[in-house]
Write a structure and sequence with these properties.
single chain; 79% helix; globular
Amino acid sequence: MSNTLKIGDDERASRFAVLTNLAIFVLVVLMLRVGKSVLIPIAIAALIAFLLWPLVARFRRWGFGKIPSVVLATGLAIGVITAIGWVMTLQAWEVVRALPRYEQNIDTKVSKLKVPDESGALSQVMEMLGRYEKELTAPAESLGEEGHHPVAVQVEQAPRSTLAAMGSVAAPVLGPLGLAGMAIIFVIAILMQRDEIQDRLLQLVPTERVPAIRAAVDESTTRVYRYLYMQLLVNTGYGIFIGFGLWLIGIPHVLLWGLLSMLLRFVPFLGPWVAAAFPVALAVAIDPGWSKVAYALGLYMLAEIVTANLVEVVMYGVAAGISGLALMFAAVFWTWLWGAPGLLVSTPLTVCLMVFGNHIPALKVFSTLLGREIEHRGRPRDRQHHSRLHRPE
């Protein structure tokens, strides 16, 4: 009887622990969703600080103080980003100025799409769709109940003031600029007080947990830095390969497309294909035929297949230690939570969760679900089958 009561108490305690952990998870996700306007700049700033900290440490070894080292490293990063943005802006302006020269090619291709060969299958499909469209829109053009044509009503919007028009134009620009400004401030603050921040966070945990937390922080810092460094190397090589390949194909402004491919590839899964859309569209404009379009698409497909299935498997897998399926789920989750910035920081945040799960028993579920290496436990029938195979005669 006592054993039955004990089993029942253990089962209730286990269910209560599961429900408690689920409630904590939902609460954390809700807090991340509500506070994303503040947490997104902090997350981006932390990633930039990971990349800049070795440079700050090098400046300090060269004899610079803490403040000059942080200012030099941050200023150098801002200068590099500004230079890349300036070069890309100039190249993009050259592309816009050159587009009128390709107007004839664009008009020819559009006319062929509008009026294709009547004997082709495409023309038959378009004719069928046009016939269905007329049938579907016919009731809307019929007469009213009393035989009169319906009266068309046109709603005219009141003219906006100049201040409102300027606000609508400036809003899409001020948002990213404000996010960048907050990120720069947080980067400087994190680099200036890196050790102090870590010590203050360690004071919030029990004393017996401090060694495990400190080991998790050190390992996550190392892994995230290694991952970001590997990603920078891979994406730089990817951009150089794309630029050289587009130059061989004959598509102009390869510097712009190489830089764009390098930068957008920091966005997992979607970035490379967004970058490919621009040079492919330019190939449609400049080429009287379709050969350059096919070559450009093939170049991006080849680069992405080789990079994703060979280079990243070798370099990212060792650096991050996360399974590919976990990376995909993490990208979807953080994109749902924070949008495009969440997609950008999904992998480093997932690395931190996995590493903390290796050192903290309460978070072991993350290391089990996200890590590349798992503990293989044979099923009972597998062990029984194994014992039958190796039973001595």
